[in-house]
Amino acid sequence: MGSTKNDNLVLMGQIGAAHGIKGEVRIKSFTENPLDLAAYSPLLTNRANQTITIKKARLQKNMLVAVLEESKSRNDAEALNGTKLYVPRESLPQTEDEDEFYYTDLIGLKARTPDGEELGSVAAVQNYGAGDVLEIRPAKGPTDLYPFTKQSVPTINLAEGYLIIVPAVEVIVDDDEAFE
Fold it and tell me: Which residues form the RimM N-terminal domain (predicted)?
């Protein structure tokens, strides 16, 4: 099972460049503590019939450097570059309280305004470098992006399958007056 066609898989990391000549690889971990990624081993991948087993890992700057059972040489390590690492959602621990959740649990939630207007559903949680953003897919048209902050998204109700988004107030500037 290497396929990611199962919607119940959560992306946990991605293998990057080879490290050294003995088959070690760099891994970008998406876990809160990067070293925790090894605890989920063996990991499913986006490659057919391939799993990855982390034998040893150490933190180097913001990346893991790992010894993998599947990588014995630099050539093996180079061949794994770009491999995405997944675990089934049910393998992740339950969250402690109602204000804690996994981003994957937000996908598919209905998005509405405080007045009850339907905005669409959560298609993805993105981060382009300036913070997390919810991508909302309306019934028609292109997706909309909303900042994923407590101010913009004050309510998340996983049990009932919705979240509330407070859209930002639009400011309209008359172009003729803008630079007088």
Answer: 12-90
